[in-house]
Every structure is written in structure tokens, then in C-alpha cells.
Fold this protein.
Amino acid sequence: MRIPRRSMVRLLRAGALAIVPLLLAACSSAVGLDGPATTLEPAGDQARRIVDLMGPIFWMGLGVFVIVEGILVYTVIRFRRSPSAGIPSQIHDNTQIEIAWTIAPALIAVIIAVLTFRTQVENAVLPRNALHITAVGHQWWFEFQYPEQGAEGKPLLTATDMYIPVGQPVIVTLKGHDVVHNFWVPRLAGKVYMIPGKVNYLSFTAEEPGVYLAACSEFCGEGHALMRFRVIALSSDQYNQWLSQAKVAPAAAASGPGALQGDPARGEAVFLDPKRQCATCHAVDGTDAKGIIGPNLTYFGSRTTIAAGILPNTPENLARWLHDPNAIKPGNLMGRVIKPEWVQQNLSEQDIADLVAYLHSMKLSVDLPVASK
Ligand code: CUA
């Protein structure tokens, strides 16, 4: 069959157009609050081994593509129909060729399998000198427990921002609270499931300080796409500075003008007032608020983001969240109680400003790394 020139041009144009959305998708995927979190720029040993595995597989794939397409294009041109020739000689069965095209792909598959197993084994090692952190996936936020760093047998708790030291291996024990979630920090390590009733482990070492964007990578319900977190990798000095501050419960809030003209001391009273419900779900170390349904809010002022990594932690955003959580993250647990009607009856504008001032007043003094990906 001879393809008319115009059809050929149309075909090529359609092919080129089909590639454009793919390229655009590659650019826009995983773009979060602060830039792309790309697996192609590893900043941790585990992610680096995964990229190193991708290299040889990509080049072998490219080799296969060039050889197969080369033979195809050559055949199409060399043996195209010509008006003078009759029916070409009919051939079938060539044992040698058939053996060759069975063995060659099998060999490539074996090489890929060996390389993959090697990477999997290397990435499954749990080092002895590691820092242990337990990460729990909730609908829809991440909780982080530091079992070795707590007091009185209780782990140090935080949420949404996971602090780690650079250069020291970390073993993350992964658990699911309600449904299956997935822990993924693209620049540091591969994805691992967080499954209720089962414990998984992940180990990696951050190679450079940074704020690494991370996300839940398994569909877990309505808020899945809004379930993010950040891994904050600090130099060991800075990490120890963070730890020594985070271990001590915040002092009682002082009176005075705070964020959005609120008063932190009054905000603390509102927070602890049973009628206002905050302490039913949330805890703040050193106070009577001991709720465990929502994130522990100790040193909330130091969180980089709110609502599980989707909004910068500004007083304005926090006030928006307190007015109507459902408008920001539909389906979330807090939004089932804190509805606009409920807020109108139970919280004045001043109460909300005071709450914002209180939560923002609990702040650690640790400089965060600027590099933000
Ligand atoms: Cu949690 Cu998706």
C-alpha cells in the first residue's frame, strides 16, 4: 500500500500534537505549593538509587526502540510496492530469527530483573544508627511520632511537617489509621503503603538541607489530592535545636496583641473551653487539651502549612479555615462539626482572631532551609 503524501503529513502532525499534552503533563504534575517535587532530582540515598536504576532501563529501552523502528522504517521503504514488481516471494518460518527475537528480550528482562532486585535489596536495608519516626496516615493528614524523643513514655508528636537531620539515616514506621494511604517524598525515597493493621518500614538519608514536598500517593477518599506534607531536613545542629525546643511544652500564652489583633491568652481560654470543641479533637502539650482525633497542635505557629500541606500557614488562612474548614477541604472530619452555622453560634470574630493569635504564638525559633522543592 502506498500512503499518499498528504495523509503522511497529516499523520505526522497528529503524532506531534499528541506528544504536546504529554510534555505539558510532565511539567505540571506534582507541582505543589512550592514547586515541582521531582524524582529526577534526588536529594536522598534511596531516591538516588531509584534514579540510578532508571538510567540503564531507559537506555536499553531506547536501544530497543531505535533497532525495532529502524528495521521497520527500512523495511517500509526498501520493500515498498513498486508498479513494475509482481507478487514478492512468499516466505514463512525462520527458526534462527525466531530464536533470536525470543532470547534477546528475555535477556533484557533478566538484566532489568537483576538490577531491580539489587536496588530493592539495597533500599530495604534498615540501618542500625537510624532515627526512628512513626508516620500515621489519617483521612486526610499525616501524623509524625518521635518515640525516642518523647517524655513519660509518650512520643513527641507533630503533624504535616516531619523534621529530620541531614546525613543521618531515618527509619520511618508506616501505619494507616483508617484507610490505605501512601507515604511519598519524591526527592528522598520511593512510595510505601500505610495500611491499617499492618506495619511497613522505609529508610532513607537526606543528603542536603531542604523543605521537601511530599504527598499521599494512594487514593484514600474525598481529600486525597489535598493530603500533603513536608519533610524538613536540617543540619544536625539545627535539628538538635529544633528537638530541644519541641520537647518542652509551650509556656502559657501571654496577653497582648497578636496575629489579626487577637489576644493569645484569651485564645488559649477559648481553645480549652469545652463548649468550643477544639480540645475534643486536638491536643496542645502542657495544657488540658488532649484530643487525639485531629492533629496535635503543639507549636502550631511553626508549621509551614495548614490543612495538611495545602495552604501557607498565615493568620488569614487559619482564620479562613476556622470559619469553614469544609470550604477548603471538602469532607474533612473537622468540617462535620465546625460548619458556618455552628461558628456563628459559638465563635465570635474576636474569638477566631484570639484563636489565631494563640495558635500562632506557639512558635519555635528554628531557621528553615530556603531550598524548597
Ligand atoms: Cu491519603 Cu491519599
